[in-house]
């Protein structure tokens, strides 16, 4: 049986325990929703970085016009950056662009997971695609779902999105999976709230903060279930659609 | 509005942030269920300690026949100690006894919370009593529910019991409470599972371990909702029933 475990915060990641795991990072508001959205709308890759400085360094390796620089800290747009609001970003021409992305929690969590056997990102938008891809792998490694959380704290939207991913992973053959306590909690919580995800997202701590900052459309967007068939996979320090990798 | 927050593991306790909080520690399998049970069955007090050595030191201050020494580590009974299985303990005469209690998670969590403004312990057994007592306090401090967890990990039974406590706290006037994301998750999870608590308890990681070790009756016992009207409160390095304190 393949194990599924959930960490509720990026601060709980233990690099040494990661190496044999398939890690899936979730920061549903907004980093990993943005990643799914931009890859679906033509971006070539997302380069997730730890902070503003790393973002600027990453841009130095890219040719002008080939990238979009996005970043926020605590919900506020970094100066000279685009806000990583998917609703606004998708209005731009992202075709074959590299998206350099710096966020408070999500991109930091991806970097912290880089030692894992394989690293994906997921969200409400692309949970079924990620689950389907993982199920097709010839692999029995444990699936470690890492909720980015928010500055050291539990985030309800990440935990719910973890539950959605789990429900998609186990739905055809739940006997082939062993869920830890945190995975069971996320799954049971998702099952009880699946009919009102948008409402729950709007009522979360980050959802309320984003609404205050003028990004309520982004919260509604990120609460949509399974609308994007993209599997962002960590490859050569960037996230690309796994289907493109395997072609 | 009074805030309710939930920590999913004792390792997340930040002593400095505790001082203005009402802390409620939950280790439903088994420490805080045992504490409620023994106080209800006549014990004078419970002395929660960090480990075997501290337990033996605590006994030195007590007269022979006045105490019962209970302790486990990783589910296994400490040599020379009684196992803190409430079902077995309640067969003894506990009248006016001090229960010296050392457990892997619960008693350690209580000690780690000792800097809080006030400290209670709760479980499925006595959640309504603890909630009722907290609601009657002339106090607007944040309620911090500390799930002990299990050796650094999330425990489903503690999170569910936190949700039960929250449902009892908010049920008459939910507008007077502000729930953080983790509190909402625990509450929503409890609401969805309240009809099958015993089943969920048996299926948790600790529930399965205890069954393997021969304590399945204790798991069933601890899964009972609201059968004990005891409010264990931390006073002078020990837990006593708050109602007795206030008389």
Automatic annotation (TrEMBL), chains A, B:
Pfam families: 2-ph_phosp
Superkingdom assignment: Bacteria
InterPro entries tied to this protein: ComB-like, ComB-like_sf
Cofactor(s) needed for function: Mg(2+)
Catalytic activity entry: (2R)-O-phospho-3-sulfolactate + H2O = (2R)-3-sulfolactate + phosphate
Alphabetic keyword roster: Hydrolase, Magnesium
Keyword Magnesium: yes
EC number: 3.1.3.71
Keyword Cytoplasm applies: no
UniProt GO MF annotations: 2-phosphosulfolactate phosphatase activity; magnesium ion binding; sulfopyruvate decarboxylase activity
Similarity annotation: Belongs to the ComB family.
Entry-linked PANTHER family: 2-PHOSPHOSULFOLACTATE PHOSPHATASE-RELATED
UniProt name for this protein: Probable 2-phosphosulfolactate phosphatase
Gene source species: Aneurinibacillus danicus
């Amino acid at each position: 049986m393949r194990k599924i475990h959930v960490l509720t915060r990026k601060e709980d990641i233990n690099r040494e325990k990661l190496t044999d795991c398939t890690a899936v990072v979730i920061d549903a508001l907004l980093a990993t929703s943005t990643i799914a959205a931009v890859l679906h709308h033509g971006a070539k890759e997302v380069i997730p970085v730890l902070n503003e400085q790393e973002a600027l360094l990453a841009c130095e390796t890219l040719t002008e016009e080939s990238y979009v620089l996005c970043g926020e800290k605590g919900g506020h747009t970094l100066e000279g950056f685009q806000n990583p609001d998917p609703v606004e970003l998708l209005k731009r021409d992202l075709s074959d662009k590299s998206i350099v992305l710096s966020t408070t929690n999500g991109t930091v969590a991806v970097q912290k997971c880089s030692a894992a056997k394989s690293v994906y990102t997921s969200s409400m938008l692309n949970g079924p695609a990620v689950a389907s891809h993982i199920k097709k792998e010839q692999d029995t490694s444990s699936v470690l779902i890492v909720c980015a959380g928010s500055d050291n704290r539990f985030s309800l939207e990440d935990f719910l999105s973890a539950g959605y991913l789990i429900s998609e992973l186990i739905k055809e053959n739940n006997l082939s999976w062993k869920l830890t306590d945190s995975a069971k909690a996320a799954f049971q919580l998702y099952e009880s709230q699946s009919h009102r995800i948008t409402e729950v997202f709007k009522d979360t701590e980050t959802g309320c903060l984003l609404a205050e900052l003028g990004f309520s459309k982004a919260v509604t967007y990120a609460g949509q279930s399974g609308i994007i068939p993209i599997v962002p996979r960590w490859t050569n320090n960037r996230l690309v659609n796994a289907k493109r990798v395997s072609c």
